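agent: user wants the full assembly modeled, not chains individually. Plan: 1) parse entity lines 2) check alphabet per entity 3) run joint structure prediction 4) return tokens. Steps 1-2 passed, two entities, 790 residues total. Proceeding.
--- entities ---
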Amino acid sequence: MEYTFSDRTNNLKPSAIREIFKYAADPTVVSLSAGNPSPDAFPAKELEEISARLFKENPIALLQYSVTEGYAPLRAHLKKYMSEKYSVGTELDDILITTGAQQIMDFATKSLVNEGDVIITEAPSFIGSLNSFRAYNAKLVGVPVESDGMNMELLEEALKNNDRVRFIYTIPNFQNPSGVTMSMEKREKLYELAKKYNVLILEDNPYGDLRYSGEFLPAIKSLDTDGRVIYAGSFSKVISPGMRVAYTIAPQPIIQKMTVCKQGSDVHTNIWSQMVCYEFLTKYDFEAHLDRLRSIYREKAKFCMDLLDKYCAPEITYDKIDGGLFIWCRVPKGANMPEFVKKAIENKVCVVPGNAFLTDEKDETDGFRINFSTPTDEQLEKGVRILGELAKTYK
Amino acid sequence: MEYTFSDRTNNLKPSAIREIFKYAADPTVVSLSAGNPSPDAFPAKELEEISARLFKENPIALLQYSVTEGYAPLRAHLKKYMSEKYSVGTELDDILITTGAQQIMDFATKSLVNEGDVIITEAPSFIGSLNSFRAYNAKLVGVPVESDGMNMELLEEALKNNDRVRFIYTIPNFQNPSGVTMSMEKREKLYELAKKYNVLILEDNPYGDLRYSGEFLPAIKSLDTDGRVIYAGSFSKVISPGMRVAYTIAPQPIIQKMTVCKQGSDVHTNIWSQMVCYEFLTKYDFEAHLDRLRSIYREKAKFCMDLLDKYCAPEITYDKIDGGLFIWCRVPKGANMPEFVKKAIENKVCVVPGNAFLTDEKDETDGFRINFSTPTDEQLEKGVRILGELAKTYK
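--- prediction returned ---
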């Protein structure tokens, strides 16, 4: 038979990154296109220990149905921890455990956005979130990212020119893909603008704990006096992405609606994973673990930036980063970015073309994204060297 | 601030069952309202063994990001197993691993159904699925269930009278909540009607392996010559619901669209759970495990029906069941069902009022659902005895 699809998903396509992964799967290709945590970063021994102990103590609890809201001790711990450590969450907020943070983008959009409503995002922004928004036929409006975050004049213009804005989506720390961190001034300004135009903010913070230089900046959610911020936290980058455990802290009515969405989607998050996360967060030295991760990524990021300086300067430029897993590079002057990326793949190195991260992929950009957490040092050196050699041909 | 929600979720409410669970949480109340597998039914020792071995062999594979489609060996195994054992799936079909079967209902609706499109369901039907459909503002049309499945005349009428029907949703085996199994004749007729009116079928089969008497009946999907059936299978009732692993076998274009939906929702299903399921299915005697489950539930179902005969006859009537976890009962003649259920709760026994399972909860029914897999034998006897005592007051 002939198949027809819903209007909301009719134009949905697999993400461009997925298409690139097909090349990246070729073992002769060096992939700088992923976003996986470094294999060294997993607390594998600890998770193994916890899992074995939980199976001994109460296997049925690990395997039986659980509640949609999430494992109660994990919720209680996170509420306290996030409030005490980061001033994230008030009495008017509640918390929902989700199957990865992507599900927060899904449920926030499902709960809040009618088809044709507007979501303002950074440009570039995380392609996975953009695709979550697109799956409900939201209209995406991109606001250019500068070295200290979104351009606030253009953000205000976007708020002024669009009367059905539902929320502003931002990754304030070590943004994917730009690596940029939003300044405190801009965080305050963004909150103020959201207030002025009466819209919500969806603050996505998967990399916040991975700051390896510079000074900590408070979450926008910590400024939230009138229940305007939906905060998305995740264990994918700091414990394990395969376990799919994340959480959202948001005003109670929004959490309630998202909970009903979750009930009708995957009922609850894998309870084994939730219990293992809880034990790791509370019975082990989580802060020491984060320090260890920061030192792994600090070293890896420095190594990558040194390679870029060595092999790719001055043709390829990039912004220094203070955290996270990504570096945003610009192709040599006069080069055509999609063509450059295509040639790189032909030369056996895979990076993600910057337009994949734009609200309209047809817009132009000279940027591309490289990731340094997934490849080994040898792979990284080989990949960056190839990029450099390619760049020199544009002299 | 004031919160407003999307049209699709504006009227969504937590399911009635959840509300009942609040009473069920009272330790002095006997709950016959859940749908959990019996704690005896979990292969806990085997899962513990597998998990420990996988942590030794390749912890990073358990913890790292994985692909949206699902763990490749699990997909390949299920494709072969379902095709060889049940004639489910052809070369034109593909398979997607999901985070529980509820997610299949979510993604099928998201992919296929515009707001206001019609989904035809059995009446009564599984409340979780109805809520998945409602979350996209689908219009639900219920077709009464008889002792051998949906009334086919009324199904044809529903197909005739609604011109935007997207699919027919059915649980052909030991339906939740009615316990009814659709006859072979009706399976064929349903497929024929779907063909005649050119609609899809969503066949949900969580209980198929839990037949403990009577003869096996082929899946509707096994009749599918023109790619019209989306088949939903699940390990929640036969391995573990807490692990949230299920799968859908459906025409390739539909699987592709659902895969994009999954990418934008939870990215992939917990990979540890997928790997553990795969090992259990392929390295252990899964058929012997199913036999063991069938004997647990055969005994438990018989015990429950005997109790109903002993304490509740003739006032409360019910349909004998051949499989699954639920028995559909009818309140005494002249009794008002919601009032009866309310009194039962006051008398410390919790059952689910039948209207919770209707497409319009305001419709009338004299039925209520009891579950016998979750309570202990003592709890079950106490609960049914209380129902019987209450029923006698209607003499």
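agent: reporting back. Chain A touches chain B through 83 residues (CB under 8 Å). Chain A has two domains: 7-43+288-392, 62-283.
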